[in-house]
Write the structure tokens for this entry.
Amino acid sequence: MLRYFNNFIKKIKNLTIKNYSTNEDPLFIPEENYTSSVLSNKLDSNVTLIKTYLGHSVDLKVRSFLIPTVPSIGASVVFLDTMVEDQLLESSVIAPLTTGLSLHSEDERASLSIHIDSLIEKALSNSLVNSYENVTDVIDQILLGQGILLIDNYSKGISIKINRGPLRDFAEPKTEKVIKGPQQGFVEDIDVNVSMIRKKIKSSNLVVNQCKIGKESRSELRVIYLNNIADSSIVEELFQRLDRINIDGLINSSSIEECLTDSPSNLFQTTFCTERPDRTASLLLEGRIALLFDGSPIVIIVPSIISDFFISTEDYYQNPYFATFSRFIGYIGAFMLTFFPSIYIAITTFHQEVLPTRLALTIAGARSGVPFPAFLEALLMEIAFESLRQAGTRLPTHVGQAVSIVGALIIGQAAVEAGLVSSAVVIVVAITAIFSFTIPYTNFSLSLRLTRFFMMALAATLGIYGIMTGAFMLALNLISLRSFGVPFMVPFAPLSLQDLKDWFVRFPQWSITKRSSHIVKGNNSRKSRNMKPNPPN
């Protein structure tokens, strides 16, 4: 027994004690996939070399043309079309190098074909023009949204500022609002959404693939992941499921969710949705895969786990202690939403002896004139509140808030005064409703709201034993769920002490050095050693 206890203590220490004796610069992350090679003077070779790093993404474009010197010279502009302004590309690069040079005399064009530096200086008026010889610098400039001009018989890449301006056509997130943090959300334009993600993750390992869904609609779908982090087997499984979708058309991202989920008939959803670029980027860095649907501001994330629905984006903009407290409130809210009405029904119907005498007398006095049993009383109030919530959702914002609040007050007060329900059940329903709003994401909350009625029926039939039976069935259901082979209940079942540091409580970022081994099979290290801040002497 002592040996097991010592092993447990060692595991706890490994969660918090790290080796910070190395002299690594914590801000330096080596680009292991880049080589130290330089560009050659062959245009085709340079284009091929860039494609070896970025060619796996469909938004990498190569615009080839001839510069009308004497003799003419081949040239290409390499860029990411989701980050580049097409009109700026045409006016700042293509037109000056083609139409503009054709106006010069033949002798001048013959001289410019020999002196490429003079050609660039004369033709390109863009003030932010720089030349690079190293492939690493060229790739970095492309990922920043710049265009790279490659010219035949010239061993440098010319970086030209043709990227989009500040994105002001984004939407403010409706369901994931934060007080401290960026107020930026996805929009219906899929290219703008891809650009938002690329601005968050400037890596050559970011893969953007394109799919067409629907025989008639031909809806565009982008699949985004980091190929050095995401599990290749999950990526392969995702594309196999997408290939199996054989339907006339899909008009929204929710339809794709139903086709991709592991358990389509289960009440709980095993895919996660978000409308925030920062949340999407953080999940991509954990090894997840993002699916962007053209015409929808909602991004689907797979695989997903239960903790995703309790982690708010604002947790990472707040103090770790307050973020942990907020998560605990969310978990308590999930428990109260599921079990609180059924506990009330079980106690008032079968187990009055568990209550203190004064509380039992108070509840009995409040229910003395009610003609309905506790189950029917609670069921009617829950249905009434759900109806008011639905009415508030369907109506315009200001009118909907007034209907939901005023309607609940008036109906509850009138029902109590008429003797149809007791004041105790109104309090129970109100507390349950308040706790339902503590869960950050409504998809999981909706499933628990339906589960609550099943628990109420069991409590009315078997009392506390019915609640225990329902809780056992609910736990078995959640433990059996998988999301692309990943256990849905990670990090609780199977238990992972390492994953609890970020998915249950909120540890400081410098202490989280590993990705989840349940999601990422290879590159588990976050390379965040030596990031613990040292106080000044």
